[in-house]
Amino acid sequence: MLILASKSPRRRELLALHTESFEIEVSNADEPEFSGGEVAEYVKELASIKAREVAARHTEDTVIGADTVVAFDGEVLGKPRDAKHAKEMLMSMSGGAQQVYTGICVIKNGEEVRDAVCTSVVFRNLSEREIDEYVATGDPLDKAGAYGIQGGAGEFVKTISGDYFNVIGLPMKRLSEILREILKTHSEW
């Protein structure tokens, strides 16, 4: 069985576009805060922590872990603490470029394959009013960097370079490659 170790409804939706044969099991692992270094390594480690915790309970299954963060101006932005924090994040990114990193980890029979994908997103200049209106929807509160490109914040985007699905939270092309590599067949995929 294929298991997605994530509570993200967006990851669930993306994976469901490619297969209906999977289950969700949320990881209970503690996630360390970013303490410096390479952002790509950080998200790979977060994805691995999630996948390992679930794989320990499902040793016969294939487990997918993923984690997404936004890097902007030397900071790593996870999910905002509250609406005020979401507004601060969005105001700071207005008119600027950020990098969205998603780490993915697939574990099968003790073998672990992990990687990170980075996509550059540039916001147009945003008004305080449109940020306030977006924050009031509640949409940014459960998303890394305080925005969902597939929702209302899609109109904030001036350009994107890289994998659009990565910005949503699951780089499907790279995940598919890893699954083919680790499974050597599409029997579960």
N-to-C span: 9 Å
Our count of domains comes out at 1
Annotated CATH topology: Maf protein
CATH-derived architecture = Alpha-Beta Complex
* Helix/strand/pairing category: alpha/beta
Summarize the helix and strand pattern as letters.
EHEHEEHEEHEHH
Percentage of β-strand residues:
25-35%
Share of helical residues: 25-40%
What's the level 1 CATH class?
Alpha Beta
Number of distinct beta strands: 7
> How many helices in DSSP terms?
6
Give your account of this protein's structure.
The protein has 189 residues and is an alpha/beta fold. The chain has a single domain (2-183), classed as Maf protein (Alpha-Beta Complex). It is built from six helices and seven strands. It has helices at 9-16, 39-55, 83-93, 128-136, 164-168, 172-183, and strands at 2-4, 22-24, 62-72, 75-77, 97-108, 111-123, 157-161. Strands 1, 2, 3, 4, 5, 6 and 7 form a seven-stranded mixed beta sheet that branches. Strand 3 (62-72) and strand 4 (75-77) form a beta hairpin. Helix 3 packs antiparallel against helix 4. The model has no long low-confidence stretch (mean pLDDT 93).
